Sequence to fold (518 residues):
Amino acid sequence: MEPDQIVSGGYLGALAHLAYSLGRKETFPAEWPKEEKEVKAFYKAWGNRMEAIKEIQFKYAERLLSSLAHKQGKARAISAYTLLGHFLSEPFQTWQNESTEPRRADGINQETIKKLASEIMGLFDALPPPIQMGLLRHHWKQIAHPAMAPALRRILDDRNEKPVNEHSYLVNDLRAQALRRLYELSPDEGRKLILEEMQLPNTRAGFSTLRVLAEKTLPEMDETLVENLDKARSGGRDAADLYSSLIERYATASVLPRVRAIYNDTAAARDCSYQSTLLAYFLRVDAAMGLDLIKQAIAGRGPGNPQCYASTLTGVANLRGHPELEAIAIDRLDDPDPKVVAGAASMLGRYGSPDAEGPLWRRLEKWIQDWKERAEELTKKYKHDHPNIWHREAGYELRRALFYSPAWLPDREKLDKLRQAHFGKEELKDFNRLAGELTDNIQITFSEGDGGWGNARVAHYECNSLPVLTEKLRQFPEGVTFLWKSYGQDPASAEQVFSELKTFLEGKGMKLEKRKNQ
Fold:
């Protein structure tokens, strides 16, 4: 390969497909096969094809690796990035061919990965902004080294030399990622820069970056945050959402009167996200006031009131929990407005304790009774303002809460009751498919997160932390076998989670095994 030839992932893949096509003659049916035997044959043939292409692509990657030292500048930087992504990619699994063991680049050891990461760190400035963003967001574990700090500082300092508009999403997001990563490498320096960014009335760093400081509150930022929020009310929804979120995250009770005054401005409280964020702040610094304002927000309906009453409970609970929120939601299950019933059911399904299951069942049974003689009305198409739309939504949220909640596990009898309450064909089809996953061999899929524990899925239940995952697993009966599948680029982290879960489950009379193709 030429020293200045850029080799991207797409280029590498195209070469592999072309080489495969030149060496073989094969045809696939123009229409999707109908017979089960034909479908299986199609899957097998397609899987063999993809396996062969992957093998060719791996050989091209080895050739690129051997020639990397002869490449120059941008071509060398992008080629190193391509190789890093290739060798860190998921083990290749033959498509729909479970009997075939997956292929992995076993010949590429961790030392090679480290060398590629070192190449990229040294040539980071030569990479285009989209690739820099991909590295900071998805491959940070490989390049999280003090040697990256100078490049991160250059991104933060140099706003004018990038070949894109300063106000573009890409530049703003890249700077935000650089700020976050610099904070991880150099906490004191990063904290200082984050505080400076937070003081700007037009910061574009984004809440996901500005929220990462270790402190629970920042008293020294109280006045600045409130002033910026006050100015942001006339600057558009995004600005108001950002500074209200920073107040919810960092502000102390000392600015409560000023924040309350801003909240009382009904013209500013019309945005639901903005309103829920400030209510969560009130709940944190003065729980009694916060709960009272939440009740007022739910009761405030009709002309001249914010149209957020139905989503208030879920909006607040997404940010901050409180035991009384569950009591309010249970009470609102009997609200005459089906919008509120749907909102309360949604909140209880996501954040409710086991005590919420009984009230949800009682309300679903009442809903079924109300509609059993006219169920066909719920399947019709209506205009957006027809009341039946929200009655249908209330039933949907009640069923969803009872089926998806992390706080309980429906037994066979309850699954049958839910099945009888499904009036939509597509929803019933999805329900039966997901309920079928609750067998004696239940799949757990795990993927590590960016700067966090990661995410696990047990059957159809989503678990975003180890405590949530173990609590869900605790609900299954003895004798169940779980099948483990992990995704991501850090096998060591996944293996540690697997080991912890295996010990936990064996102590509960259950098993955890790796899938054959893991």
User: Anything to note?
Assistant: Residues 90-107, 160-167 have pLDDT under 50 and may be disordered. The CA atoms of residues 84 and 116 lie 6 Å apart. The first helix runs from residue 9 to 23.
